[in-house]
Structures are given as C-alpha cells and as structure tokens.
Amino acid sequence: MPTTTKKATKKRKRARTARVSARIGEIEAEVTAKKTTKAKAGRKQLGDALRELPGRYVDETSKFIRGASLAYLENLRLMANISSSFAEEVYGRDRTEHTSLADLAVDFPKNVSTGLANALDESLDIPGKVVHKFCETYEEKG
C-alpha cells in the first residue's frame, strides 16, 4: 500500500475516532442535562419514585442488554468481514501475480504477511464501530 494511502487511512481513522469521542461527549452532556432538568423540576414523592423504579429498571436493563448483544454481533460481523477480506486478498495475489509454481511458492509468505497487515489495519476500526453500534442501539426509542 503506498505511503500516501496509509497516511490517508490513518487520517480517516483519526477523524472517525474524533467523531466517536465527540459523540460520546454529546451523549454524556445530554445525560447530565436530563439529570439536571429532572432535579430542578422538583423531587418526586417517595411513593411515586418507588412505584416507577421497577419498570424503569427493566427498561434500562433491557436497553443495555440489547445494546451489548448487538454490539457483540457487530464485532463478530466485522471480524468475519476482515477474515474474508484477508483470505480473498491472499488468494487473489497468489493467483494473479505469477505463472510458475516456484514463483507462487516464493511469494506466498509475502502475500500472507501483506494480507495480514491489511487485515490488522482494518481491525483497528472495530472498537469504534462496536461502541457506535452500542450507543445507537441503546438510544433507540422503542
């Protein structure tokens, strides 16, 4: 991969990470604002709060479990895509670059290591995408 392409990829990854961090900051600010608004609106009576607690607990737990489950599945999906891309890249390089069996055998380790490096590079995007999927799912209105 040319150096300029690697630099562009790193810039995109940094930008994506910055966007995810900014979104996390926004979500935290929204949660803080909601807490402040609730506190200013007045304290609920103890009986009202206790009656609402079990339903809210179930709702929040359900949202969390759903978000975590879908984030986990997103992780599996991304890993499968990377594995597939790795195999296709190695197989494609192995079939298109040379004609003799000796050339194929000599270049096979290079093809595997190049494919592995590209797969590792792609895998660095996974944590941000998984966090995004969790936040997206948790915030869904249902």
Short characterization:
This protein is mainly α and 142 residues long. It has 2 domains: 1-43; 44-142. The chain has 4 helices and no strands.
Written description of the protein model:
The protein is mainly α. Helix content is 88%, strand content 0%. It is elongated and about 80 Å long. The mean pLDDT is 86.
Element layout with pairings:
Blueprint: H1 3-40, H2 46-96, H3 101-123, H4 126-138
Helix pairs in contact: 1-4, 2-3, 2-4
Helix proportion:
over 70%
- Structural class, by secondary structure, is mainly alpha
Low-confidence stretches: none
How much strand?
A: under 5%
| Basic shape | elongated
Order of helices and strands: HHHH
N- to C-terminal distance: 44 Å
Number of strands: 0
Radius of gyration, Cα only, in angstroms?
Answer: 24 Å
Count of helix runs = 4
Q: Report the average pLDDT across residues.
A: 86
Number of domains: 2
Largest sheet: none
